[in-house]
Amino acid sequence: MSKLLQIWKEETTGYQLRLMVAHLLLAFFPVYSGSRIRPAVLRGLGFKIGEGTVIMGMPTLTGGRNLHQRLSIGRNCVVNIGVLFNMGERITIQDGVAIGHQVMILTESHGIGPAERRAAELTARPVAVGAGAWLGARSVLLPGISVGAGSVIASGAVVSRDIPENVLAAGVPARVVKELADRPETGSRG
Asked: Half-sphere exposure of 164 toward its Cβ, with a 13 Å CA cutoff?
């Protein structure tokens, strides 16, 4: 009987009543509709999502129990469609962040094991994204990294180490390719 109980526990780890309720309430809103309703519903279910944030399509949320305690999204953010938040650890997104199509933010990975099973023990490390940053479409943030405020991560980049503030990072692995102004340029061109 204990073997059945263990199997049941393993198979239901991802069961999240809050997420099931959110999916039921939001099922009738196709992508790009209900973008202000999604964060309101998630906020009502205990997720920390700031006012003014829009979510264009329901993100995929993974990482075990109590996900609502591991995700913090600031004010006036944009979360586009197909985004995956893997939350074995905390993900902190500050105010004004833009997250492009199909971005993956991962907090979990495996160590490298012996030849008979290279994917060893699962580990988790938090991820942080600074205010005003922009994560381009299909970029990937790996466990334990931070993206500095005002930085841009190019589409398709894989971020495997911290990115400083106000830079453009691109490539696999992502590296700084350009420094950006720390405030918007003013309009007049003499």
From this structure: 10
Of 23, 68, 101, 110, the catalytic one is: 110
Predicted local confidence at residue 184, as pLDDT: 61
In tens, the pLDDT along 50-76 reads 999 999 999 999 987 788 899 999 999
- Residue 3 CA to its chain's centroid (Å): 35
* CA–CA separation, 87 and 105 (whole Å): 8
CB atoms within 10 A of CB 86: 22
Q: 115-173, pLDDT tens digit by residue?
A: 999 999 999 999 999 999 999 999 999 999 999 999 999 999 999 999 999 999 999 99
Look at residue 22 in the predicted model and tell me its pLDDT: 85
Q: For residue 79, how many C-alpha atoms fall within 13 Å in the half-sphere facing its CB?
A: 31
* Contacts of residue 190, Cβ cutoff 8 Å, sequence gap at least 6: none
Can you say whether residue 141 is alpha, beta or left, with left for phi > 0 and alpha for psi between -120 and 50 degrees?
beta
Active site residue 23: no
173: Cβ contacts below 8 Å, ≥ 6 apart = 158, 159, 160, 161
